[in-house]
Amino acid sequence: MNIVSEKRRFEILNQLETNGKVFVTQLADQFGVTPETIRRDLDELEQQGILKRVHGGAVKSASMHYEPPFTKRQSTSAHEKRKIGQKAASTIKDGETIVLDGGTTTLELAKAINGVKQLTVLTNSMAAAHVLNNSLFTKRFEGSVILIGGTLNAAQQSVSGSMAIAFLEQYRVDKAYLSCGGVSMDVVTDYDNEEALISRKMIEIAQSSYLLADHSKFDTHSFSVIAPLEQFHHIITDVSSIEGWHQCIEETGIDWIVAEEAVSIES
After folding, report:
1. From the centroid of its chain, how far is CA 10?
2. How many whole angstroms separate alpha carbon 63 and alpha carbon 250?
3. Which residue has the higher pLDDT, 112 or 221?
4. Which residues, 6 or more positions from 209, have their beta carbon under 8 angstroms from its beta carbon?
5. Which residues contact residue 37 at a Cβ distance below 8 angstroms, ignoring those fewer than 6 apart?
6. Torsion-angle region of residue 241: left (phi > 0), alpha (psi -120 to 50) or beta?
7. Are 87 and 111 in contact (CB under 8 A)?
8. Cβ atoms within 10 Å, residue 210
9. Which residues pair with 225 in a beta bridge?
């Protein structure tokens, strides 16, 4: 797929998220392409499970709306997430400012931060803030933790909404570490639109963005688009390669980082 079609499909998904439905004729007029081209876009996105084709257009895929509660997700691929979190923590340097989203893999990153000085961490994760606060108290690292303000999502133990977006706009950070619901060669997605908007803003304020994703997330989609894959500078995962991804990684120039076996972290 070329860059033009990638961007067109990204915009189609944004419109679908906003309006709940898109129409072939309207999209064809908007993008200056034939209805057949739009139908091919929609057919491809339906095959990927990200929308449902209906007469004249497409609607949201109902199966993409459900996200398991935070505590449930913690136990899924726990070993892989621990490896990825520890590898991500090793990329943090003294004096940096970083932002973490509300994912369970980024929680493992928060647990693994150790020995860093003058570190500033912003996060919308209640769970990560709790872990980081304990780490500061026990002097596992030196610095400060800023909890992003906004609307609490109790099931996901995170903060989101317009206030959280406005809060983030006040900052610029060195690195953003983000989790996701799915990763394709086009886009990175999440289950919840509010969480996706927060992640998108985190990418905007960061000089460098890290995607933390275990092998099960690849070639899958959740519903809400975070960003095109090319907006990430690094991917940290638990496998050395994914079938069919070599060319994509070469073309985008993304740094593919493999997490080694997890080690025990002292409390």
Report:
1. 15
2. 32
3. 112
4. 175, 176, 178, 202, 203, 231, 232, 233, 234
5. 28, 31
6. beta
7. no
8. 26
9. 189
In the numeric block, the tokens 């003058």 are attached to 118
Beta-carbon contacts of 143 under 8 Å, excluding residues fewer than 6 positions away, are: 116, 117, 118, 119, 120, 121, 136
How many angstroms separate the CA atoms of 107 and 154, rounded?
16
For residue 216, which amino acid is it?
A: S
User: Residue 125's beta-bridge partner residues?
Assistant: 158
Token output for 14: 């944004």
State residue 56's pLDDT score: 92
**Cβ atoms 155, 70 nearer than 8 A:** yes
Q: Residues 172-202: pLDDT tens digits?
A: 999 999 999 999 999 999 988 889 999 999 9
pLDDT for res 266: 46
Cα dihedral across residues 185, 215, 82, 181: positive or negative: positive
Q: Is 171:138 a contact under the CB 8 Å cutoff?
A: no
Which tops the pLDDT comparison, 112 or 50? Answer: 112
Q: What percent of the chain has pLDDT over 70?
A: 88
Residues 6+ apart with CB under 8 A from 228: 6, 7, 10, 186, 187, 188
Cα 224 from Cα 60, distance rounded (Å): 10
Can you tell me the distance from the alpha carbon of 261 to that of 39, in angstroms, rounded to the nearest whole number?
A: 44
